[in-house]
């Protein structure tokens, strides 16, 4: 069975600081990888996804993530955060060919103006 | 607009009572999911269904039951056997294979 680890539970940054949130997964086969975001009072929504190809994927609002297969990692990055990025971020993994999608425990990001 | 509708938004229940949470989607998605969200524990998968009349247990299925009689609907029953039912419950759906989830607004269940 697959699992996902997010090591940063709560991150506090000042505006314009750079962001990197860690995500590691465990699964022996090929996977699809996702980052979802939950803004205060809003639905969970997709930030970006990786299925195959270029391991550096770009998502909405200037976010990007890099898949490093040898490290089983899919870290989320943004060069310069804004106050509006305050939210909870979830990494998720889905073994290709299967329907099950497993989420990590989430990282709460607080951006201070 | 296409989307997922969960009801009720808030629900209070006495211990020992079963309660059913509704999830309806008009996205024509084949797969549907139920997750439970607790602070510090992320989203944990309760049940999921790939097609009508078929569903699989997720990681924390004990004390829950589901049905999938229609493509659009995937109700979740929280039974009295669920030892810690107070939580925020999220329903999601996806097309078969793509597994990009669309989420509903959630239902918050409080057991008194």
Could you write a compact summary of the structure shown?
The complex is a heterodimer of chains A (113) and B (112). Chain A is mainly β and 113 residues long.
Greatest interface: A-B, 22 and 25 residues
Helix content of chain B: under 10%
Strand content of chain B: over 45%
Helical residue percent band of chain A: under 10%
Say what oligomer this is.
Answer: heterodimer
Order of helices and strands of chain A: EEEEEEEEEEEE
Task: Give an overview in words.
The complex is a heterodimer of chains A (113) and B (112). Chain A contains no helices and 12 strands. Chain A has 113 residues and is mostly beta strands. In chain A, the strands form 3 sheets. In chain A, strands 2, 5, 6, 10, 11 and 12 form a 6-stranded mixed beta sheet that branches. In chain A, strands 3-9-8-7 form a 4-stranded antiparallel beta sheet, with no helix packed on it. Chain A has a two-stranded antiparallel sheet with strand order 1-4. Chain B has 112 residues and is an all-beta fold. Helix content of chain B is 0%, strand content 52%. Chain B contains no helices and 11 strands. Chain B has strands at 4-7, 10-13, 19-25, 31-38, 42-51, 54-57, 64-66, 76-78, 87-94, 102-103, 107-111. In chain B, the strands form 2 sheets. In chain B, strands 2, 4, 5, 6, 9, 10 and 11 form a 7-stranded mixed beta sheet that branches. A 4-stranded antiparallel beta sheet of chain B has the order 1-3-8-7, with no helix packed on it. The chains are: A mainly beta (113), B mainly beta (112). Chains A and B meet through strand 5, strand 6, strand 10 and strand 11 of A and strand 4, strand 5 and strand 9 of B.
């Amino acid at each position: 069975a697959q699992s996902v680890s997010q090591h940063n539970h709560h991150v506090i940054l000042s505006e314009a600081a750079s962001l990197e949130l860690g995500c590691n997964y465990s699964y022996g086969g090929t996977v699809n990888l996702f980052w979802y975001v939950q803004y205060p009072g809003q639905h969970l929504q997709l930030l970006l996804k990786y299925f195959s190809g270029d391991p550096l994927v770009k998502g909405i609002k200037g976010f990007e993530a890099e898949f490093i297969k040898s490290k089983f990692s899919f870290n989320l990055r943004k060069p310069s955060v804004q106050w509006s990025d305050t939210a909870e971020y979830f990494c998720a993994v889905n073994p290709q060919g299967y329907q099950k999608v497993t989420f990590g425990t989430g990282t709460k990001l607080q951006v201070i103006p | 607009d296409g989307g997922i509708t969960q009801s009720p938004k808030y629900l209070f229940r006495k211990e020992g009572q079963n309660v059913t949470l509704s999830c309806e989607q008009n996205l024509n998605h084949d797969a549907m999911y139920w997750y439970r969200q607790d602070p510090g524990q992320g989203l944990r998968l309760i049940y999921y269904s790939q097609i009508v009349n078929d569903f699989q247990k997720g990681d924390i299925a004990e004390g829950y039951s589901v049905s999938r009689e229609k493509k659009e609907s995937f109700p979740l029953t929280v039974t009295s056997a669920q030892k810690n039912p107070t939580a925020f419950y999220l329903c999601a759906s996806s097309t078969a294979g793509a597994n990009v989830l669309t989420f509903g607004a959630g239902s918050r269940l409080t057991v008194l």
